[in-house]
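In the previous chapter we treated chains in isolation. Here, by contrast, the input contains two separate entities that must be folded as one system, with a combined length of 363 residues.
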Amino acid sequence: MNTDLYHVSVYRFNPEVDKKPYMKNYQVKASDCKGVMVLDLLEAIKQHHDPTLSFRRSCGEGVCGSDGMNINGKNGLACITPLSDLEGKVIKLRPLLSFPVVRDLIVDLSQFYKQYESVQPYLQNDTMPAKENVQSYEERKVLDGLYECILCACCTSSCPSSWWNMDKFLGPSALLWACRFIMDSRDTETMARLEDLQGLYRLFRCRGVGMCRDVCPKGLNPTQAIHDIREKMLRDAV
Amino acid sequence: MSDQKRPVYLNLLQVKLPLVAMVSIAHRMSGILLFLLLPWALWLFHLSLASYDDFQHVCVLMAQPLHKFIALLMLASLVYHLLSGLRHMLLDFVIGESKCVAHVCAKVVVGLSLVIILVLGSYLW
């Protein structure tokens, strides 16, 4: 989208004033945007049109994962989504799907963090060496594509299995983190981690829809990670 | 603050679904359709085996556009469900996990299903 004027429709909800959410339209001059990303557009709205507009932001370069939101129907990070990539006459900005909205584009991620916490996302080693925990090049390479997750919640928010079973299914992000530690050669709690994922919901509610893989702003593949965990379970069982 | 004051945004009509997701969701829908149409198929099958006259009656019924349409709907669901199911089985063998290959697989499922359904449709009519 290359234009002098951006037509933007933003999801608004202030719990102290509004009974229900609504979409508010803005027309933003391209010259008011200090950059070329969706986040710059939001900053321009906040600065020139409506200072009450609320959204999270921090690093502004796709590292902190604060500004995950639904941009024209697809989850992504506002700070690394170029305005030029957006199609349609109106840019529609809504909060992440399926999470309770605190205000405007800010959602409550408590449940998401609970899921993350439940996979024990830290190294557990009962024979921790005194000096250093050596890992070969090949063992370290296995972790590529697993450790880069920034917890922006774009994937979990896009996952249909998470929509209906947020409290039981761990979701793509937490499972990607689970896979990261299951595959780590230095972790000695692999069996306990796999045991923890047994059951109908925690891992196996994933139906391979692939929305997580499609929206991940870091280009990660939680679908693959979930399959890798299942494969490891199978190999360890036979 | 209570969750009652926190609406959840989940408007499925506004969600942009990639082809892979649509193929996957349509796989389930075709399964439901197959299940719902099964009594109709069993009824016709039962009728066709009852007697010669009933078999002739089934032939007459199947010549009607409504029953032809239902038959085509069922065959289409079966073809799509089968091909999409094979795609899921390939995924279990870790084939088509990457984003690029998954999109190609989804396109193949849709394309192949359309061709087979068209052939079946022309045969029925």
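The first helix of chain B runs from residue 19 to 50. Residues 19-124 of chain B form a domain with the 3 helical TM bundles of succinate and fumarate reductases fold (CATH 1.20.1300.10). Compare these points with the single-chain example from earlier in the chapter.
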